[in-house]
Each structure stands twice: as C-alpha cells, then as structure tokens.
Amino acid sequence: MSIAITGLSSLRQAPFRLCRALWETIPNSVRRTPAMFRAGRYIYHRYTRHTGKFQSHYTQFMRNPPLLATIATLASKYPRGAGIKIASIGCSTGAELYSVLYAIKNLRGDLLVTAQGADISNVVAEAARRGVYIPDVPAAEGGLYAAGRAEVASVDVPSLVELLEPLPDGSLRVRDWLREGVTWRTADATDDRLPELFEPQDFLLANNFMGPMDDQLAERCLRNMVRLVARDGYLVVDGIDLDVKTRILTQFGFRPVLTNQREIWEAEGLKTGWPWLRWAREPIDRSAGDWALRYSVIFHRDHR
Ligand SMILES: C[S@@+](CC[C@H](N)C(=O)[O-])C[C@H]1O[C@@H](n2cnc3c(N)ncnc32)[C@H](O)[C@@H]1O
C-alpha cells in the first residue's frame, strides 16, 4: 500500500521535476530578465509557496558572514561603554546568537551586551545554555522538531577556534567571553504576551521559523516581533514569506538597511533552488517597486 502511495506521489511530482530540470537548463542571463522573474514568481506562488512547511531546529555557527559583519557595524553607532540589548527568538541551540555576539564583541569589546535567546522547545534552549557542540552531530536531537544538520561541521572547526574551545573529548564549548550576559528561556513567539517577557531590544533576531507558519500565524508572529524592537533599534528577520514580511514591515514604517544587501541575500548556499523550493531565495529583482524592503534582512525602526 505504502509503495503504491509513494509511486502515485512520484508520478504526480514528475511534471514538476521535468519543469524544474528544464528551468535549470536556461542560462542565468536569460533567467534574470523581467519575463523570467515574472514566470518564476508565478511558479513559486502557484506551486511552491505552500509546500515543505515543516519546522526544524537547524542552525549553524557563522552562517551568514556579511550579515554578521553588518550587524556588528550597526552596533558600532552606540557610544563607548553603552549597554545594548540583543534577543534571538526561535534561537534553537544558540549558534546564531553566539555568532552575533562574537561579531559584535570582536569589533566593540567595550559595549555592555545583554543577550537573551528564546525557543518554543526547552530541549534546544537547554542545549543553547550548555553551549557544547559535537562536530557533525546536531545538538538539537530530542527537540520538538527535526534536528537538521549539525551546528558545526568538522571541516569548519579550525575557523571557529575564537568562538569555540576544543575539549579533551572532542566536543567544542562556547568560550566564556561569549557566554557572559546571556540567558536562555522557553517562549512561544506567537504568544501575544511575549512583550511582557522582554524589554525593548536594540537588535531583535527572528530568523528561519516564520516561513513554515501559515500566513495568518506568521503575520501575527511578526507583529509580536515588531513590538519587541526598541525605538531606533533593528529587526533582523529572514526565512519568512517575502509578501508577509513586506506587507507587515511597510505598515510599521521599518526602513531596510541596504548596506551589503546583495551579499547578505546571496550568502547562504542552502537557500538556492528558487522558484522550486519554498525556502529558496527569490533573486533580487530591482524592477520590483518594493525591492529595497523585499530583499533586505535588516530593518531599522526609525523613531522620527
Ligand atoms: C530553523 S531554527 C532557526 C534557528 C535560528 N534562528 C537560526 O536562524 O539559525 C527554528 C527554530 O525556531 C523555533 N520555533 C518554531 N516555532 C517557534 C515559536 N512559535 N516560538 C519560538 N520558537 C519557535 C524552533 O523550535 C527552532 O528551534
């Protein structure tokens, strides 16, 4: 029976696979024409947008270097010795928040950073608090969702030595200077009471968990995220449907930070495959009226 169902589903997928294979033969120069952008957007909206909506705990150290560098540069605007607040919602096992802390503290060791990570799964929040990782093994095993890939691949260990201290048993522990001032908790990002748990944040990271939600829930969740950002603070939001993001952030008057926009947008190898994969990056189309907001990941809450 299950073989029959698998066979039927492969059969249904066949035209989709054929179209994708044909699409991949089209040269890049042609794919980047307005007509092909329109065709790609049609395919994405008609066939892809509602597929593959599953949550996972996947996260990785130093995943998007241009994004980390830009966040650190933005943090440089704060005066010497200032206190700043950073929160990562949907933090998983902590690799993202620790990486952001590394980028900021490396550039501005004088800032007094208070950081909080929150995730709906207490198992991954605990793993983040421990901050111990085994190369090639995801620390999120036993969490609420699929663990995904490991936070650290063996080949990347030498490049992460400033963040992660090798332990005698072969595991890696986040260095103490990055753990200072960080707390971890369990919380649901869709809960309207979330702002009661967090003070307004100078940097609010909300990445890679709203994409799998249906539009209504993602909108509600993003509104919650917006409420956590301080006046003059920054929202970093990625891995969310672009129409939902553009609609809500326009309403709240957030301005996109355009520094390194293309580098940030194109940095993550796992986000290729548009228009055939839901989580893949739509290529930057500057003829779209909303391109500045649509293809940005960092947004400034302008208080003027
Ligand atoms: C794919 S991971 C992303 C981790 C990290 N933000 C990053 O980008 O590297 C998504 C995380 O969001 C968490 N998550 C999903 N729904 C959530 C919710 N409603 N509230 C809080 N966390 C949630 C999941 O448990 C998972 O650990």
Task: Provide a brief overview of the structure.
By secondary structure, this protein is an alpha/beta fold.
How would you describe this structure to a colleague?
This protein has 304 residues and is α/β, with parallel strands linked by helices. It has one domain (65-301): Rossmann fold. It has eleven helices and ten strands. The strands form two sheets. Strands 6-2-1-7-8-10-9 form a seven-stranded mixed sheet, with helices on both faces. The chain is globular, with a radius of gyration of 20 Å. The termini are far apart. The mean pLDDT is 94. S-adenosylmethionine is lined by residues 55-59, 89-92, 96, 119-121, 124, 144-145, 188-190, 207-209.
The CATH C-level class name: Alpha Beta
CATH topology: Rossmann fold
Bound ligands, named by name, code or SMILES: S-adenosylmethionine
Strand content: 15-25%
Count of DSSP H/I helices = 11
State the end-to-end CA separation. 63 Å
Number of strands: 10
Strand count, sense and closure of the main sheet? 7 strands, mixed
The CATH architecture comes to 3-Layer(aba) Sandwich
Structural class call reads alpha/beta
Low-confidence stretches: none
Strand order of the largest sheet: 6-2-1-7-8-10-9
Task: Tell me the domain tally.
Answer: 1
Overall pLDDT metric? 94
Estimated radius of gyration: 20 Å
Question: What's the SSE pattern?
Answer: HHHHEHEHEEEHEEHEHEHHE
Helix content: 25-40%
* Assembly state: single chain
Global shape: globular
